[in-house]
Amino acid sequence: MTQAVAGAVVGHMLAYVLAVPNPTARVALLGATGHAYWTEAIAAALVLGLVSLAATLRCQFRAGLSPGRPVPGESVAGVAGRLAGFQVAIYLVQETLERLEAGLPPHTLGRLLVVGVGVQVAIAALLTLLLTLAGRAAEAVGRALRRVPCRREATELPLVDLVVAWPSRLLATGLGCRAPPHSLVAG
To answer: Do residues 99 and 109 lie in contact, with contact meaning Cβ atoms separated by under 8 Å?
Structure first.
């Protein structure tokens, strides 16, 4: 799930901001804990986040274009829970590998562990909500642009109605009368 990677990186950044509010101390901690790759991680998260958004929009737009009722997907809570699980796992593996790379034991996470897990869950819920809303909007656009099959509207009267309608039309115009035209009688 591309959105899980993007969400994990965003959550990772936010966890460090919340756990270590002092920018100087945060930069020192990041430098000491193996975050040399962080610029590349942010770039990858940006790309993966955009890919995830584009895929969601495309899929839901196409669902809106297809005839019939949309097939209900997984519940928003189910998607958020699954995404949160992926993000928490990514965060824990990421932090553990960073500590090992820096030569620090994994238990040095301390407050970052609790804050990071909470932030990952919150980011997962927010991402799910945003992608769900974007997907619903794309589906609505697809439905609005869907070609409705043309039905042949009955512009002509059915045969039974023609049989009933013709004599009354003839009588209404005076053509149903058997008498000679007025111009011939007078003349």
So the answer is: yes
